[in-house]
Amino acid sequence: MTQKEKQFVDHWTEKRKKWSWKRHTYRTFLTIVLPIAILIDLVNYFIIGDTEYTFFTFGHLFTFLLNTVLLAIVIILGSGLTDWNYNEGKYWSILRRNANKLQ
Q: Domain of life here (predicted)?
């Protein structure tokens, strides 16, 4: 096992114990989903000129919240499953390969 693989195994061994969907959801929502939703809304209103709604109405707020919820579901689930499955696969692959070398 190379030094880089050893570092990854040590890192993922600790991180997988602390993995929580609640923390992943919170962090991803604040750092990725909310800025993207706000950026899309502002670009839609100011640059594209979608003036179906005046800027502050309940209809516009409902559309914004609906778009934010849909983006959150897609991005949070997609990134969480991808991250977990990729790292788990890599982790077990390294451990299996190392176990086969020891035999």
A: Bacteria
